[in-house]
Amino acid sequence: MERKPEWLRVRYNQEAVEEVARLMGELKLNTVCKEANCPNLGECYRKHTATFMILGSECTRNCRFCNVTAGHPLPPDPDEPENVAAAVKRLGLRHVVLTCPTRDDLPDGGAGQFAATLEAIRASCPGTTVETLISDMKLDTKALDTVIAARPEVLNHNVETVRELQKAVRPQADYQRSLAVLRYCKEKAPAMLTKTGFMVGLGETEEQIEALMDDVLAAGVDILTIGQYLQPSPQHYPLARYATPEDFARYKEKALSKGFRYVASAPLARSSYKAWEALEGVHDLH
Amino acid sequence: MEKQLSLPRLREEMTSGMLCAWLKEEGEPVEAGEPLYEIETDKVVNQIEATESGVLKKQLREEGDEIAPGEPVAVLETE
């Protein structure tokens, strides 16, 4: 195993982690923090924040970068929307990120559960903003309409990597389809912020990164996140390189100069990491 | 009172992690929340925080050791 660069250091406090994990266990909830083996789990749990993974912990796809288990997921839990709302209340979250494994097995791709969870959060925590980090839902516009109609403040869908590496990294997804999801959502609800993210360190070139930025910007994306790919295990897609903090600063500058409204670019930046900062950052521009 | 500190399970599938550095020497005081040692796992280097204050009485493992979750790593003298 290649030694980790000094900027990939994170803090871990067992008590804080166990406290949030206990709450999730009590309410039968999953977090992508745990399922994706997120390096920021310790920091986020310590701050009493987490990203909820609704619709189970097993995914119907098998992307080669991702730590979420591929399998045959269970039907949606009807109590989940209320349980998420209860956890949001107990954690006192002002901004919630909801995500899911890809549910190609469900006719609506899980859109109904997103809408129900949003509604439950709105009912019990009226001041809380919500970000939905969705799968491509096979570009089913009816499913996307269901999510949009629930009026999340931010709609996020990750392109994950440059066009050239899509097949190798996320074989059951499609770059153009992901762009189409982002474009459709923006056209349907222009006031809703849209967001996407990608990883570096999979073997992409600077030119390919720039082309990706141009493509997602053309799809109307407001917020961009850029982070280091970290290989979850030797069985996952091989790591090509560690980009330096200076590289990430350069990507950020480049993206902002192209016209994104907010860019989070850092080695440990993740789609939902400090997501409220992006929302506030965009609103400060108004 | 002496308290044995074990390596937490940093993730569910974790089988072991490598102790890359001690951040406190034996005999040094430690505040709750201060990082005590570093464990390298697949993705990152984790700085494990002390969950209570005391004095680091003994380092039970050496830098470079592979440690399984639950195995004792240090002895902390608490009040």
Give the terminus-to-terminus CA distance of chain B.
Answer: 6 Å
Q: Helical content of chain A, roughly?
A: 25-40%
The quaternary state of the protein chains shown equals: heterodimer
Helix and strand element order of chain B = EEEEEEEE
Number of strands of chain B: 8
Could you report the average pLDDT of chain B, rounded to the nearest whole number? 95
- Residue windows where pLDDT falls under 50 for at least 5 positions of chain B: none
Question: Residue share in helices of chain B?
Answer: under 10%
DSSP helical segment count of chain A: 11
Q: How many helices of chain B does DSSP assign?
A: 0
Shape of chain B: globular
CATH superfamily of chain A: Aldolase class I
Quote the beta fraction of chain B: over 45%
Strand order of the largest sheet of chain B: 1-8-6-3
Q: Biggest β-sheet of chain B: count, sense, barrel?
A: 4 strands, antiparallel
Explain what this protein looks like in three dimensions.
- The complex is a heterodimer of chains A (286) and B (79).
- With 286 residues, chain A is an alpha/beta fold.
- Chain A has one domain: TIM Barrel (Alpha-Beta Barrel).
- Chain A contains eleven helices and eleven strands.
- In chain A, the strands form two sheets. Chain A has an eight-stranded mixed sheet with strand order 2-3-6-7-8-9-10-11, with helices on both faces. A two-stranded parallel sheet of chain A has the order 4-5.
- In chain A, α6 links the parallel β7 and β8.
- Chain A is globular.
- The termini of chain A are far apart.
- The relative contact order of chain A is 0.13.
- The model of chain A has no long low-confidence stretch (mean pLDDT 95).
- Chain B is mostly beta strands and 79 residues long.
- Chain B has a single domain, classed as OB fold (Dihydrolipoamide Acetyltransferase, E2P) (Beta Barrel), CATH 2.40.50.100.
- Chain B is 0% helix and 48% strand.
- In chain B, the strands form two sheets. Chain B has a four-stranded antiparallel sheet, with no helix packed on it.
- The model of chain B has no long low-confidence stretch (mean pLDDT 95).
- Chains A and B meet through β1 and α1 of A and β4 and β5 of B.
- β1 of chain A pairs parallel with β5 of chain B, so a sheet runs across the interface.
